[in-house]
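name: query_chain
kind: protein
chains: 1
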Amino acid sequence: MRAVQSEQVSVGWDDRVLATHTIPHFMQSSTWEAVRSGGPWHVTRRGLGVERDYPALVFERLAEGFGILEHLPRVSGLTPDDVPALSERIRAGRGTAFATKIEVCQPRDEMLVAAFQADGWLPTRASQYRHTVIVDTGMSEEDILAGMKKRARAEIRAAERNGVVVGRVELSEANRRSMIELVRETEERSGAFFRRSGYLERVWTTFVHDDRGQLYFAWHEGRVVAGAFVARYGSNAWYKDGGSLRDQPQLMASRLLQWGIICDLAEMGIERYELGHVPPPDEPDAPGQGILTFKGAFAQDVLEYMPAFQLSHEDRAEAWRRGEGAFLAEHLERTGDYWY
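structure:
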């Protein structure tokens, strides 16, 4: 399904991305371009293919002490044979950038990994999560339920018995305020990092304006107890932001909220719903095991994306690759915000 597009949406650009990327991600959309263009990132539209069209948004930012970093987030539709031409185009068009980071939104593929490494790309720190849970929403509700783990089905039924109801809501001022309160409650309870409220509201507003986003609430006895903002692009959707109250965890409101979203997306014609970050399932000591338990119950498997790679253009790029983690930590400590 193609959503109705506002005048802000660049139909030509998005048509190209949707036609050439195998998992078209909202970070390559004109909507995300509009979100990011208002901050420290400079965004350009590039054609990085040689024998075929391959559009990609390239984000550039000054990394203090290093220079300009190029970033290609969440690109897809690449094969091992594409890598040499892609690298050539990036080198030719890098301008003053000291390095280029690419994060490929495709399942891990050892042949593709080898192709990047053979062309001079080095493993680097990922800015986006690499493990997630995917719900196939291109099936009937019965088949979607059958694909879930028993725990998810049981908790959905429990929430329904408890009187929880879910639905879409407008992104009104009151609802934005309620959603921010849910996010901050979750942040305080879990210790997870969330972006600043102004940034979150800018993202939500821009996606809703382009008919590529929707806010959902769960209520119990008239009280909002959970919320989620979902982004859409083409036939894909993402659980972008969420929050909940935990004074009555036995309600299972968040479980029913996600089930309501899944059903709504399936009715809209969305075929793939990505639930966001989960820790690697083979690392039981990694933070976020509760997130893995919750999201992992909606499907049988966890998907691992490709690792991030860096293509160095200047000698100082290696110092950045090795020291990026410390740079990001210092930036977060100094500003209270995420550099990416």
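note: Confidence is low (pLDDT under 50) at residues 1-8.
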